[in-house]
């Protein structure tokens, strides 16, 4: 029997607001335990939550960017369960009336475009965390750090429209790209700012009904999501083929073994006893507010890609690579705005700049060659002052100093030779020294042309203008 | 007249004229507490040293010519209000040693005016009860008859006023917890409109019903206390952004032209004859003052108690989940593992009534029962609200009993929770409707027990009910009688 996987994803996106969702405490990552807490996020008796308006704005942004309907009235609910890092004994979340519903994202897998439904996006608070090891004061016990308690999250729930691990990863990457572009999240997966639960089931191809699903909790890298889903699909198919049945349960992915394992079964499933939080009045969002947020939305990757193609004339590949990261795209656009030709700038940003960043282990934001300085370099190529090849040398120099490219070119005497007399002289010498190859070329072996170009460039120490070299060589070789 | 007998406005006048100092008044009340507390048991914690220090500070402030209505006035608070550095128990073993790191909004507002805090008052555990018998710190006795309860849950606050242990107090009212004990102890108790007073720093019982209000010697004091604590608070999303009127200025002494509704469903069998008689006399008094009476109907009254016990317990089951032994309050000494720690800490920390309500609420919210209980109750709550809005289309306020009987005996209803729950039958609908109500002394039973009457106003109609209550108080002498202690 052939099987078909059915996958739905629940993604938790931590929002990069300055303060928490229901109090004024900061959300800085990595602060000393419990140093960023107050009676509200500690769940102290008598404390009450007050909604952070910025969180709502971010949720509207995310909703609009994923084609959702923004609910004019939404409600916060309490999700009740006991856990030591959950200060109030309930999590404030949204349940029946979330802020965003009925959206979608288009993904591309193997050249095909597919629309993935987004059931809902809702706002909620995070819990704290438990610290079990390496803290001398704790002895054998465990500690609770509530710095993270009450930090704002969006939960983005997809429809079960995904059919493979690759589709799931494509969807996740797309969503990740969008939230980072929107500026609502730093998307840092190591710090847990973007993490995902995957609901996976399998059914015989063509079946009308989905199989029983397992939920894989808290996977925090694209690679692990792919591994976890692929493993889980395999596991479920094997189980069914051996005559077993899949049970509804929560599973954990172990990156060490690449496998998922059972965490808790359905019989232990919680009854969260959701009900509207009486401490928070229903959230009413005016059309005007939504319109304002829509106006202020940044250009999203999709639109950027189109614009690069249509307006800047970049090939699809270049557009795709450049928009993959908002910072990279911003760097590229700054070059174009400073006067760099689009295609040259694209080549350099994707090529030399990216290579140098990778070697230095830096992010584009920390690039020592600012767009204006790179543009000055590209303009030297454009004007014919230096060749593209020489420019690479100049670039390396610019990387480690803050000198202007013109200064480097001057200092090192790298100005390109376009003087036809000088180049002609070199060509004549080389042709004289390599008469055999001249004959071969004239006998129809045109490949030899490259040999002559190389020789001329070497003789000129790379300074000869390649265009002039080509032109003169062609003339002289043809005789 | 002794200093401990004065109202806020009387003491304020003396402080202003420098006839007495706040330290003198505070000493007089502390002495009164010491003398009467063995018989009453109104306090959980007395803060004598802090109180005297605050009184000294108030005297310095008065000497500098800065005097607000509450500057130097000795008050005591129900132990449900969190007070920075002062143990706050909420009447529960689970918070026996809890010292909050912050002041709630109403506490901060009282302190900003220079009020002097004498201590924290007894109450039913987590405000669940109608007799102050469910406190983990012992029962409070009714100063009019030590065999009887003061009512509840703000029984400590009401008894404190009746025993003249503080000039004024604050309580909270979720289903009648201010008005019913005020009625049983012969003082004035006001439950403001939901959202009028901030709940920030008030330990939650049922969030959508809880409201802070004063228990005082007379109506003028109730107006003064309300004026001091009312108003929008950015720390409480449910508090309402609306200017605070000058409540004292509303006390004109007149009731002329007021149209008062008598809800038919409140006057019927089961109402104690002495209570009925007192109400009839009160109606005559109001008529004499120029008020007009009409019969109105609140048709869903019969469902109010059931509705209340579903909504209040549902919210309570969630609000009390934070008492799990992890961060503050009681933690069991003998746990084997995490779940056992949660279970034992809660089993040891909570009393029977609290456990009963948590169980009820958990059941009402659980999947499979939510629609039948919680959701249905919310729908009935809407109908009850509509009853009130409809009634207020034709009248300015309602006059009703506060409690079906005068104060009952200690132990009389503890084993019969349903009977206990019915003692709030006339106050509960006001909380469900979210509107305001006041209890004022309106007579005495043959046994010498106080009887109160309730005036219910429109949402944010505090000025109207205070004016009517004040006019009635001026025309009668009930509030001048004191418990013989």
Would you mind describing this structure in some detail?
The complex is a heterodimer of chains A (479) and B (485). By secondary structure, chain A is α+β, with helices and mostly antiparallel strands. The model of chain A has no long low-confidence stretch (mean pLDDT 90). Chain A contains 15 helices and 16 strands. Chain A has a nine-stranded mixed β-sheet with strand order 2-6-7-10-1-11-12-13-14. With 485 residues, chain B is of the alpha/beta class. Chain B is built from 15 helices and eleven strands. Chain B has a domain at 3-240 and 247-255: Amidase signature (AS) domain (Amidase signature (AS) enzymes). Chain B has helices spanning 8-16, 22-40, 48-63, 105-113, 155-162, 179-185, 219-229, 273-288, 304-319, 338-349, 352-365, 371-394, 417-422, 428-433, 462-475; strands spanning 43-46, 74-78, 116-121, 168-173, 188-191, 211-216, 259-263, 292-296, 397-401, 436-444, 450-457. In chain B, strands 1-3-2-4-6-5-10-11-9-7-8 form an eleven-stranded mixed β-sheet. Chain B starts with 7 loop residues before the first helix and ends in a 10-residue tail after the last helix. The model of chain B has no long low-confidence stretch (mean pLDDT 96). Chain B is globular and about 65 Å long. In chain B, strand 7 (259-263), helix 8 (273-288) and strand 8 form a beta-alpha-beta unit. In chain B, helix 5 (155-162) runs parallel beside helix 6, helix 7 (219-229) runs antiparallel to helix 15 and helix 9 (304-319) crosses helix 11. Chain A binds chain B through residues 39, 42-51, 78, 80, 82, 84, 87-90, 144, 271, 273-275, 278-281, and chain B through 81-82, 88, 90, 95, 98, 100-102, 104, 199-204, 206-208, 234-238, 314-315, 317-318, 320-324, 326-328, 338, 342, 362, 365-367, 370, 374. Chain B: It comes from Geotalea uraniireducens. Chain B: This is Glutamyl-tRNA(Gln) amidotransferase subunit A. Chain B: Its EC number is 6.3.5.7. Chain B: Residues 24-466 form the Amidase domain. Chain B: InterPro entries: Amidase (IPR000120), Amidase_CS (IPR020556), Amidase_dom (IPR023631), AS_sf (IPR036928), GatA (IPR004412).
